[in-house]
């Protein structure tokens, strides 16, 4: 059986993306599962490879970086990294700085990867981190990966699912203020996230997934003592989902539901806002969490950390999350959404 092809974007060229991309695509456990093509800038990647060599990060000889113009030209040879070279990073671009040029380049990698996946040239994409401020400087209209991926792939609805070990978290809201998050946590929006999570996990091979819905207020409102949003906005969504046959429980106190899910009681948790879900994921391991975008016609996974400008270009960045994101893509492509649990736990 032929291995699936995963297109890996190198992220913001001024961040740690080029370094962790190279290290991840050379990892034996990754190459055993999938064929890989890096979308980026060849010369920037060569510079990153030299930095990694100076830092003693290569086990043996550094890989050869081979430029290709089309994905079909990739050879997938041992000791060679095929690079779909977009020639879009100016010489001398500084490491660790927000620039318009880096933002534009990073967006172009994402757009190219989506095009390959939509046209079924690549089976999945895995993305290294981008910098939202750099995207804004470059005039990119999207605030981040999730929004760009949705529009570029023609998806009417999408959401991020963070994964770390046994814990999966899907957010109702992300990059908005807490005040806006409360307003956006409507019955309709919560129900849409429950349905999307249920459908996506089943598509990934997890039958009859058990979904927990976190409350919005402390103790999920404590029967209205700490706010009525949980009873008024969230519970009706849970009840409707259950009426549709979804194994769904909630709203549950957010201070305990994530531990229960990580312990195996639930297959996924619906979080009401950004920090409620992100804190739980990152407490399990800052560089082992990954992001899967739900609702797209393509499979996309990503690291769950940023560009780390403070250590970019120093050869010290860890590639664990990048490796995990590619392996999770491989698991989902094989139709086994539960296989990643054991593999990730080995890296924590």
Automatic annotation (TrEMBL):
InterPro entries: PdxA_fam. Transmembrane segments: none annotated. The keyword Cytoplasm does not apply. The keyword Repressor does not apply. Keywords: Metal-binding, NAD, Oxidoreductase. It comes from the Bacteria. SUPFAM superfamilies: Isocitrate/Isopropylmalate dehydrogenase-like. Its cofactor is a divalent metal cation. It holds the Pfam family PdxA. GO terms for molecular function: metal ion binding; NAD binding; oxidoreductase activity. Belongs to the PdxA family. PdxA2 subfamily. This is 4-hydroxythreonine-4-phosphate dehydrogenase. The lineage of its organism: Bacteria, Bacillati, Bacillota, Bacilli, Bacillales.
